[in-house]
Structure to design on (75 residues):
């Protein structure tokens, strides 16, 4: 259903039905927005799990780690 057809159908409703529709839309938006802070909190917690006191490895260190892994895997 397109937005335009939905708008046309809404205009055909009685005033009380339109108010009920608006209320249902607002309620659905509140439900959606209440989930966002929870999701953001969880994402922040997950990022916190990845934090370390060490600095990020340099490109050379990463290359060395990859090379070590290849040697372990294929030898």
């Amino acid at each position: 259903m397109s937005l335009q057809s939905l708008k046309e159908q809404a205009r055909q409703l009685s005033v009380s039905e339109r108010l009920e529709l608006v209320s249902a839309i607002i309620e659905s938006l509140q439900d959606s927005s209440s989930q966002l802070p929870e999701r953001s909190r969880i994402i922040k917690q997950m990022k916190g799990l990845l934090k370390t006191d060490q600095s990020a490895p340099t490109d050379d260190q990463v290359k060395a780690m990859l090379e070590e892994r290849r040697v372990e895997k294929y030898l």
Notes: The two ends are 59 Å apart (CA to CA).
